[in-house]
Amino acid sequence: MKNFNNWLGRLPGTIQKMTTKSIRSVKQLTNKYKRTIGTSLCAVALLTSVHNDSVKADDYSELNIQTIYHVYVDGQRVGAVDDEQFVERLINNKINESSDDYIDLNLVVGEGVNLIPEVVFSSRVNNNVTIEELDQKLTVKAEAIALKVDGQEISYVRTETDFEEVIENLKLQYVTDEELSAVRKAKEANEIFVEPAVGEKIILDVRLSKDVNMAKVSAKPEKVLSVEDAVKQLNLGTLEDDIYVVEPGDVLGSIAVEHDLSLQEILALNPSITEDSLLQIGDELNVTVYEPVVKVIVEETSKVKEEIPYQTKTEDDANMWRGDTKVQQSGQKGERVVSYSITRENGRTVQRQIINENVTKEPVDRVVKRGTKVSASRGTGQLAWPAVGGYISSYKGMRWGRLHRGIDIARPTNRNILAADNGTVSFAGWNGGYGNMVRINHNNGMSTLYAHLASIDVSVGQTVGKGQKIGVMGSTGNSTGVHLHFEVYQNGQLRDPMDYLRR
Q1: Residue 129: in which H helix or E strand, if any?
Q2: Which residue of 38, 359, 439, 451 is most buried, as measured by CB atoms within 10 A?
Q3: In Å, what is the CA distance from 326 to each residue of 162, 318, 319?
Q4: pTM of the predicted model as reported, rounded to 2 decimal places
Q5: Angle of helix 85-99 versus helix 127-137 axis, rounded to 10
Q6: Is the distance from CB of 45 to CB of 6 less than 8 angstroms?
Q7: d(CA 340, CA 337)
């Protein structure tokens, strides 16, 4: 205490008074609590009362007084150092080690580091132990802007400008820059809605399906994305594809089930394969189901001129032959002007409503007359099967090096030959290689021919009805067996009977 008193005596008078007063206060506290607080408390009172550059450093050294710094990380004490520069150097070194990899980022220590000074008479700190412990607890992060959707941090970009650019680029995927600018200006000016002209489209609003907010945060440097990658993550919900490597015994179905996918979904994710593709061990399949974090909603209104299709009405006419038709009145399309309210979600129309419609030209119906008049001598145009059962043993086409002009029907239930439609017999008799043959004119531009008959039951000029017996199946003329050879003509031109028979 002698040294302390000597040192106190050398102080200027005003400071001596202040210091003496502080010491007196200390003694009063000592008496009040009836305990000795010793020279360290006296030193604290001294140091809080005295600040004069005239006091020399060696004056402190006589008392062995020293300042140490307690180091706290996020409120937890990790140790103490006797020089705060130890902590500063550690932080700077950790940041510098990562700076070359993240040139464009402002790197910081991610944890809160606080130094609490304490004045002591004797220091027993271990700088190395404290710095090693501190090094383990500190991580390098980057100052960033978080894109938060529903309160959750989805991705990170460098600056607020990047954040605004991400939002802008999301919207510009589905509208033009001019359209987006017009929407923004209209909202800022609180413009009154103006109905579009015919053929014009007006974008009313472009917004995101969820609120995307920003927040200043510290993030892992590798998590800070470019504007392009941040847009991709919001579009797809991920930046990386989940790849499955085919193992022995794998099939598409089992891989799909394992990843909660349908077969159609896994095929859509892997366009290079089909349901019949043979998987090889080691093949890589994409099993990622993309789900946008947010969607872009575009509301628009448009006014268009549209055609109104005409209707066709058919009217029966007893004065026209059955099978004949005639257009009595040509149809004419109408016109209308329609205003639509349309909502699109990521470019797909999810709602389309008519808000106004004005018919400018009514459509005119097309009227067709259909004949209903029938006669035993006039065909209906629809041919019936000319035999009783049987099957086609040979079709129209090339056969044995030459054209087979009709179809052959063999093995019927019975051998009666029947008229395929109403008409008049124009030929009945022998005709060379056809053998016994009947030809019927159906008086509607069609005629049919029946050959190789064993016998004929009709004569020329006779009127026959559809399904009436005209002869018996046989093998006359150039025939290899019992059958009916049947030909069809339309306006004198040979046709394929299969185009007319309902068989």
Answers
A1: helix 127-137
A2: 451
A3: 71, 13, 12
A4: 0.55
A5: 40
A6: no
A7: 10
